[in-house]
Amino acid sequence: MTKSTRDGRAKMGSRTRLVHAGREPFENHGFVNTPIYRGSTVLYPNAEELHLRRVKYTYGTHGTPTTDALENAWSELAGAAGTVLSPSGLAAIAVALFSVVRAGGHLLVVDSAYRPTRNFCDTILKRLGVETTYYDPLIGAGVAALMRTNTVAVVVEAPGSQSFEMQDIPAIAAVARQRDVCVIMDNTWATPLFFPPHERGVDLAIEAGTKYLSGHSDLLLGLVSANEKYWPQLKATHESMANCAGPEDVFLALRGLRTMELRLREAERQGLALARWLAARPEVARVLHPALPDDPGHAIWKRDFLGSSGLFSVILRPASRQQVAALLDSLELFGLGYSWGGFESLVIPFDCRSYRTATKWAPEGPALRFSVGLENIEDLQADLDRGFAALRATPG
Ligand SMILES: *Cc1c(COP(=O)(O)O)cnc(C)c1O
Fold this sequence. Notes:
The chain is α/β, with parallel strands linked by helices. Helix content is 36%, strand content 15%. It contains 14 helices and 12 strands. It folds into 2 domains: 256 residues, 3-Layer(aba) Sandwich (Aspartate Aminotransferase, domain 2), CATH 3.40.640; 133 residues, Aspartate Aminotransferase, domain 1. Helix 13 packs antiparallel against helix 14. It is globular, with a radius of gyration of 22 Å. Bound molecules: pyridoxal-5'-phosphate. The site of pyridoxal-5'-phosphate has 13 residues, from helix 5.
């Protein structure tokens, strides 16, 4: 124990919680950080204990002091009854869904969900007899009309993956609660720091720890936190699947956790600065960033969220594929790559047309998603200046 406790920290600020949560120095000879426990086998002191399994740790897949440290810290941060760790964000999504679905059940999934979530529903869950209906991210309480007697969960994600629509999560959660339907949220963009999921009515909250929790593009990790009602079934499902995370990745995530708020606040500041700069560019038609006052989702963001992270998109004015390629290829600082939330800036082109089913994605020009890193903002702007010059110099 550090001297403070979870209850004692409840009234303290989030930065204090991030520094102290999940650490037990005096269970580790006074060392500030919980070390990496590696292992499969756990030895029991005698036959009686082996039979009763009354010990705290029973087997590597069931948890170690290292995984406990991160699970406890995350539960405290998210205001959850419990948290499980998975080897990737997508694995965490699978655990969350497996903990509520059954053959013959029905899922409601937002049309703007992370694309691999859709793939999981459309392939594995479909094969197991679970039907998925996709719905408009702007549906709000209107989701009630899509609920059936066999609906087991509604999956929300705000802002939408790539396209940044905001969802009225409290309204959706109120409708779901009346019908005893589980609300599952992919909260990776905001993290519990900028959207406290369980306070807002979410039952199971997913975080791709690969992104801002890691912050360094050097690990893969997923977390699912649950409220009291859903914790027993989440825990049991996770244990049945042995969907556990690697000890080094968990240790690095604990290290990332201590500075997560500082990095997120800086990502927010840099992200807003770059978004405003892009909004003023003649090559840009629109910026999709819910923290900007003229964004269609701004009112909901302002009401429900406590901050914005450094990931947003822009719609360019009409341009050819060659022109967009010229822009991307001339960039020296922005990397071209998937994932996000690291210290380095990234950009990817995207097009939701090929997979949306409940809504139509028809922007006026090509779309780019930016993850803004910690570089000097003037250097990032100069890099994009170079990119836009290359776009203009390329025949359409
Ligand atoms: C990246 C991402 C995931 C998946 O995380 P991985 O660790 O890459 O599997 C899930 N949801 C969202 C919104 C993401 O951006």
